[in-house]
C-alpha cells in the first residue's frame, strides 16, 4: 500500500464515528476500541482510505458495485433526474418516466415469464414484500390456508423481521425470538461443511429431498412458498452440487408451491448471466432484487413478478395493501437505468461468462494448493477459500470458529485488499469490470495474505 497523502483528520473522524455512529452487524464496543477504517474515495475496483492507502475492493462494496466505483455517467443521470423531478410517489394513480422506463427494461432483461416489478429500497424490503405478496397471492387464489414459507439454514434474505425470519442465520434468530411463526427451514447444500463422506452429487440429491420431506411434514396445502438464493452469498458462497437445483425443480414441479429465487446477490451478472435463475435454468414465481440493480449507487430493490403470480395479484382485482414512500423513487430509477445501460453497452454479463470469469476462476481455484486452503471454489465472479487446520480433512475445523477468518480478513485489508470472512472461509465478489491485471493483483494479494496468515497461525501453534 502506498501512503500518498494524509489530508483527512483520521483521528478526529474516528473519534466522532465512535461517539455517534452505530454500525450494522458490529460489536460496537470492540470497534470503538479499535477505530473504523475511513473510506474517502473509490474509482473502478479501487478504494482509497483517509490515509491515502489504495485498497482493491474484492467485495464490490457489499456484493453490489457491478460497474465499478465512480462512474460519472450514473452521477450525471441522477443529477439530471433530480433537477427535473427529485421525488414523487407511485401511489394514488400516479407514475413517472424513470419508473416506467426501468420497469420496461427489467421486463426485457428478466426471464420471459416475468414481466412486472414492484419497487422498494433494499433487498430486505424486497423479501418483506415477498412474504406478504406470496400470502396475498394464495388468498386471492382462494387458498388462504397456504401461509407457510420454507427457507434454508444459513440462507440470507436480509435483516428486517421477514428477512431475518426467511433467512437461516441462527445467531440472528436468537436476537428477538425469530423466526416469526409460519417460517420453516431445511438444510443447505453445503457439501464442504456438511457433506460427510458422500459425493457432492449424492449429497446434492439428499439435501434437495429435505424439501420434499418438509413439505410432506407441513402439508402442501399449507405452504405458500420456498425461498432460496441460487448460490448462498452471505452464508459463505455455498455453490450447490450440480444435482441440487435439478432435484429441487423436480420436487416443485410436482407440487403447487411458489418458488422464490432471491437474486439480490446473483442477479445482474454476478454469475455471467443476467440472473442466477438463468444460470441454473430456474423459473421463479418471484425474484427479489437489489444491490446490482443500481450497482449500489443509490438504494433500490424490487420484486420481479411472474405472469403466474400476476394472475392472483393483478388479474383477480382487489388492492394489495403494501408499498413504500420510495417505491420506484425517480432518482434511484435513473441510477438503475444508467447502471443497466453501462452493463449492456460494455457487455459486462458476457465479459463475466466468457472472459474475466474463467480467467479469475482458474487463478482463484489454483489457491487450493495452499497448505491453509481446504477448498477454493468460484462461479462467475463469486468465490470462497475454506481455511482449514489440516488439509485434506474436511471434518477438522479451527477452534473458536471465525477467529482465523477474521485474522485473515484483517491481514488482507492491511495487504491492500478487501476480502470478507464468513466463519473461517474467505470470500470475494469483485466488481464485474475487473481487468486481467487487477485479477492478477487480486490473486497475488490473496496468496500473500494466505502466506502471512499461515505464518501467524504457525506462531500461535494452530497449524
Ligand atoms: N437477500 C440476499 C441474498 C442478500 O445477500 C439481502 C437479501 C438483503 O438486502 P439489503 O439490501 O436489505 O441488505 C441480502 C443482503 C455480507 C452482507 O456481509 C450481505 C448482505 C447485506 C449485508 C452484508 O455478506 N446481503
TrEMBL record:
Its cofactor is pyridoxal 5'-phosphate. InterPro entries: Aminotrans_3, Aminotrans_3_PPA_site, PyrdxlP-dep_Trfase, PyrdxlP-dep_Trfase_major, PyrdxlP-dep_Trfase_small. It comes from the Bacteria. Gene3D superfamilies: Aspartate Aminotransferase, domain 1 (3.90.1150.10), Type I PLP-dependent aspartate aminotransferase-like (Major domain) (3.40.640.10). GO terms for molecular function: pyridoxal phosphate binding; transaminase activity. Keywords: Aminotransferase, Pyridoxal phosphate, Transferase. This is Aspartate aminotransferase family protein. It comes from Roseibium aggregatum.
Amino acid at each position: 500500500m502506498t501512503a500518498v497523502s494524509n489530508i483527512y483528520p483520521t483521528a478526529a473522524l474516528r473519534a466522532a464515528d465512535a461517539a455517534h455512529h452505530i454500525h450494522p452487524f458490529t460489536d460496537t464496543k470492540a470497534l470503538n476500541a479499535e477505530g473504523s477504517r475511513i473510506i474517502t474515495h473509490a474509482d473502478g475496483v479501487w478504494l482509497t482510505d483517509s490515509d491515502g492507502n489504495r485498497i482493491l475492493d474484492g467485495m464490490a462494496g457489499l456484493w453490489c458495485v457491478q460497474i465499478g466505483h465512480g462512474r460519472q455517467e450514473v452521477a450525471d443521470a441522477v443529477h439530471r433526474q433530480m433537477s427535473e423531478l427529485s421525488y414523487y410517489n407511485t401511489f394514488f394513480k400516479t407514475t413517472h418516466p424513470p419508473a416506467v422506463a426501468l420497469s420496461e427494461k427489467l421486463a426485457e432483461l428478466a426471464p420471459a415469464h416475468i414481466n412486472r416489478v414492484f419497487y422498494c429500497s433494499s433487498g430486505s424490503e424486497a423479501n418483506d414484500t415477498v412474504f406478504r405478496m406470496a400470502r396475498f397471492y394464495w388468498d386471492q387464489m382462494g387458498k388462504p390456508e397456504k401461509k407457510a414459507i420454507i427457507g434454508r439454514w444459513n440462507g440470507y434474505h436480509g435483516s428486517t423481521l421477514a428477512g431475518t425470519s426467511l433467512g437461516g442465520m441462527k445467531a440472528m434468530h436468537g436476537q428477538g425470538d425469530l423466526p416469526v411463526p409460519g417460517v420453516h427451514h431445511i438444510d443447505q447444500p453445503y457439501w464442504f461443511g456438511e457433506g460427510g463422506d458422500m459425493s457432492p452429487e449424492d449429497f446434492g440429491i439428499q439435501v434437495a429431498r429435505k424439501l420434499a420431506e418438509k413439505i410432506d411434514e407441513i402439508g402442501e396445502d399449507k405452504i405458500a412458498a420456498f425461498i432460496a438464493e441460487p448460490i448462498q452469498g452471505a452464508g459463505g458462497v455455498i455453490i450447490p452440487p450440480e444435482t441440487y437445483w435439478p432435484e429441487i425443480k423436480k420436487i416443485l414441479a410436482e407440487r403447487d408451491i411458489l418458488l422464490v429465487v432471491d437474486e439480490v446477490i446473483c442477479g445482474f451478472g454476478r454469475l455471467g448471466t443476467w440472473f442466477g435463475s438463468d444460470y441454473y435454468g430456474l423459473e421463479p414465481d418471484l425474484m427479489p432484487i437489489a444491490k446490482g440493480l443500481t450497482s449500489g449507487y443509490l438504494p433500490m430493490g424490487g420484486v420481479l413478478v411472474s405472469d403466474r403470480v400476476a394472475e392472483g395479484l393483478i388479474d383477480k382485482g382487489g388492492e394489495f395493501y403494501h408499498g413504500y414512500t420510495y417505491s420506484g423513487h425517480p432518482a434511484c430509477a435513473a441510477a438503475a437505468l444508467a447502471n443497466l445501460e453501462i452493463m449492456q453497452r460494455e457487455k459486462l454479463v458476457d465479459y463475466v461468462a466468457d472472459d474475466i470469469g474463467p480467467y479469475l476462476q482458474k487463478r482463484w481455484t489454483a489457491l487450493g494448493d495452499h497448505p491453509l486452503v481446504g477448498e477454493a471454489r468460484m462461479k462467475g465472479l463469486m468465490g470462497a477459500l475454506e481455511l482449514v487446520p489440516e488439509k485434506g480433512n474436511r471434518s477438522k475445523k479451527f477452534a473458536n470458529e471465525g477467529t482465523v477468518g477474521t485474522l485473515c480478513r484483517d491481514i488482507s485489508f492491511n495487504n491492500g485488499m478487501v476480502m470478507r470472512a464468513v466463519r473461517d472461509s474467505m470470500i470475494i465478489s469483485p466488481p464485474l469490470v475487473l481487468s486481467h491485471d487487477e485479477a492478477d493483483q487480486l490473486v497475488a494479494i490473496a496468496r500473500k495474505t494466505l502466506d502471512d496468515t499461515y505464518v501467524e497461525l504457525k506462531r500461535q501453534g494452530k497449524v
